[in-house]
Specification:
about 375 residues; 8 helices; mainly alpha; 3-stranded antiparallel beta sheet; binds zinc ion; 3 domains
Length: about 375
């Protein structure tokens, strides 16, 4: 894993991969949004149905019936008043006609001309019409009065009915709110029942394959799912609960990161260890305990981490490449050993044989440190 060389590729590829990962996360978030929205369309309680269930049917029926009757009564009164207006016009007209005819008669009397039969009849007719109009007007007046009385009575009943309804609606409204709240919890449960297992699966896979080539894909999916889960919780849980959920989740995250960092200090990652090993070998020091590696031409010399640079000029005429295996006399770690492939002596704690290039698995390299139980060089 650590020895595999990672090709990051040209920058344009890296940008494209990043953009693609971002797009994947966004699309997945979108998809989750559709799922959550569809779950949200589940029908909740109906306020009217709850009222019908909990309020006396008679009260509700009365409310409707009274409203219809009152409206009918008001319309009838308006109609009658229109009729009266027509009648008033007509009466005015016949009054005018009558007056004109009377004036004519008076003039004729002054001129001592007897009124003709036609004139007499016309006068009589208009008088009759006027009286008939008046009678009808009176009748309608009585009707309007009766209707107004009835209307007043209906309105009184409506007021009483409304008072009772209002009292009955209070528990119904409470029940409706109760059911609506339960419906919201149900929706939240459904949504989380889809999202949380998904989040668990993605997180599991991401942790499992965090070192793999396709880890960014899983991270993108995980982040999208996490964002949706938080949003759903924010939408459905009362702010008080959400606050606690958020703070507990943050605490868990911080603790997890801290544990990770502490473990890294105690059990460093293989690539960090390898870097330490490399630096120790460069200075001819044991990577485990920092005791000088006194082999070959260095056998009779002394140096420390700081003074190692003065050893640059090695004594002449001595073999540059020591052949024998070597174990640190201080901590007992094998530092040079025969290569299983080519039998030459190789670095025991570096990945490749310097002669044939045979690779040693990283676990095996780092395992040496774990087995000895000492961390890093002193
Ligand atoms: Zn040592
Ligand atoms: Zn080899």
């Amino acid at each position: 894993m650590t020895t595999a060389r990672r090709h990051s590729g040209p920058w344009i590829h890296r940008v494209l991969v990043m953009a693609g990962t971002l797009l994947l996360g966004l699309l997945f978030y979108w998809l989750l949004g559709f799922v959550v929205k569809d779950i949200g369309t589940l029908r909740g309680p109906d306020r009217r149905a709850v009222e019908q269930e909990l309020i006396e049917a008679e009260l509700l029926a009365n409310e409707r019936q009274l409203a219809i009757e009152i409206e009918d009564g008001q319309r009838s009164i308006t109609d009658l008043k229109k009729q009266q207006a027509v009648l008033r016009d007509s009466a005015d007209n016949s009054e005018k006609t009558m007056n004109r005819l009377l004036e004519l008669q008076k003039l004729n009397l002054q001129k001592e001309v007897a009124p003709s039969e036609v004139e007499q009849r016309a006068l009589g007719e208009s008088q009759q019409l006027f009286l008939a109009n008046q009678r009808q007007y009176q009748t309608i007046n009585q009707e309007v009065a009766a209707l107004t009385d009835r209307l007043r009575e209906l309105e009184g009943r409506q007021r009483e009915n409304n008072r009772q309804l209002q009292a009955a609606r209070v528990p119904a409204a409470r029940e409706y709110e109760d059911r609506a709240r339960r419906h919201q919890w149900k929706l939240a449960a459904f949504k989380l029942a889809v999202l949380v297992p998904l989040l668990g699966a993605v997180v599991f896979l991401a942790l499992r394959w965090r070192g793999s080539l396709y880890a960014p894909l899983l991270f993108a999916l995980g982040l999208a799912t996490l964002a949706k889960v938080l949003l759903v919780m924010h939408e459905h849980f009362p702010r008080v609960y959400f606050k606690y959920i958020l703070i507990v989740a943050s605490l868990a995250l911080v603790v997890r990161v801290l544990v990770y960092l502490l473990r890294m200090v105690a059990y460093p990652r293989p690539d960090w260890l390898l870097k330490q090993y490399r630096e120790a070998y460069e200075r001819f020091l044991c990577p485990i305990c920092a005791y000088p590696i006194r082999r070959g031409p260095l056998r009779y010399l002394f140096w420390t981490r700081r003074t190692v640079k003065r050893l640059r000029h090695l004594p002449e005429g001595q073999p540059a490449e020591p052949e024998a295996p070597y174990v640190c006399p201080m901590c007992g770690t094998a530092l040079f050993e025969p290569c299983p492939e080519c039998q030459a002596v190789r670095h025991a704690l570096l990945p490749s044989c310097s002669r044939c290039g045979a690779q040693k698995p990283a676990v095996q390299l780092v395992g040496v440190n774990g087995a000895n139980g000492t961390g890093g060089d002193a």
